[in-house]
Amino acid sequence: MINNNILKIISVIIAVIVWFIVATSEQQEVSFYVPIKFKNEGEGLKAFTDTNLISVLVKGPKISMKNFTFNDIKIEVDLSNFQSGEYLYRIKPTDVMLPSGIHLIRAEPQDIKIIIDKLGKKTVKVLPTFIGELKDGYKISSVTITPSHVTVSGTSKKIKVLESVETLPINISGVDASLKQKVGIKVGEIITDAKPNEVQIELKVVENIIVKNLNNLSFVLENLNPHFKVIRINPDRVDLSVRGRSDKLNSLDNLKLFVDLSKINRDGIYELPVKVAGIEGVDVVDITPSRIKIEVRR
Predict the structure, then answer these.
(1) Can you tell me the distance from the alpha carbon of 55 to that of 71, in angstroms, rounded to the nearest whole number?
(2) Nearest-angstrom CA–CA distance, 261 and 292
(3) 201 forms bridges with which residues in the sheet?
(4) CA dist., res. 201 & res. 131, Å (int)
(5) What is the pTM of this model?
(6) CB within 8 A of 294, min separation 6: which ones?
(7) What are 209-244's pLDDT values in tens digits?
(8) How many CB atoms sit inside 10 A of residue 242's CB?
(9) DSSP letter string, the chain
(10) Closest Cα to residue 137, out of 213, 203, 212, 206?
């Protein structure tokens, strides 16, 4: 009995060892886009490159690659021996830092352009950045930014031609009222710092009131005494101009134009007004013509 238990334990151990050997021997290749970072920039200097992302292909045991992400890869270029200027730099395997057991196959592009420049400062205008859309029927009336300008730091060549800086995105999705909030200044490769680093955005949101022209519309005749019949109508079409919030004017499904004939009690030619119904919250600006000539007979 004891021997059987020992044999079972040994079998399990052997199975685990075999599984481990198989799992670690099976290799998998994966690729990621990885940002470049610079270290040991000289005092008062800032480096940047137009090639911000490097495509890195790596290989490792399949079991290790299961939860492997681009965050596990770092590309750092040591600038200890570089002065200000422009350089064509080849990415070395030692620049790509990987966890133990993971191997680099290739990094593309291999050659990148690095520009090292002195840091400079400049006061520039702040421009707001919005994402999303206001609630249908509303619009931005005005935007007030306080302060309207900030002092940014960055490489001299880039800062010299910079005229404005953007805020971090402000989400206005579904907004239908004015708002006031603080938001940070967007920094990155060109702008390394901003003072102050945030501004106050005051957004005035109002109803988007527009005028809409509807041409060649038909109308209906209502409430005519059954003892009469219409002989002639002139004209039989009208033009309508309405004013209201844009979302309401885009959904005029219930719009109805009509002429009320309820007061006709004898033969003759009548000049009656065209009336409008089914447009709640919308104003009628003009109806052309506003009156219709109608001839009726018994």
Answers:
(1) 13
(2) 11
(3) 145, 181
(4) 14
(5) 0.65
(6) 221, 230, 232, 233, 234, 259, 261, 269, 270, 271, 272
(7) 999 999 999 999 999 999 999 999 999 999 999 999
(8) 21
(9) -HHHHHHHHHHHHHHHHHHHHHHHHSEEEEEEEEEEEEESPPTTEEEEES--EEEEEEEEEHHHHTT--GGG-EEEEE-TT--SEEEEEEPPGGGEE--TT-EEEEEESSEEEEEEEEEEEEEEEEE--EES-PPTTEEEEEEEEESSEEEEEEEHHHHHT--EEEBPPEE-TT--S-EEEEEEBP-SSSEEEEESSEEEEEEEEEE-EEEEEEEEE--EEE---TT-EEEEEE-S-EEEEEEEEHHHHT--TT-EEEEE-TT--SSEEEEEE-EEES-TT-EEEEEESSEEEEEEE-
(10) 206
Per the listing, tokens 């290749």 go with 29
| Token reading at 29 | 């290749």
Residue 236, CB half-sphere, CA atoms under 13 Å: how many? 5
Pull the structure tokens for residue 25: 């021997």
Name the residue type at position 137. Answer: G
pLDDT tens by residue, 169-221: 999 999 999 999 999 999 876 788 899 999 999 999 999 999 999 999 999 99
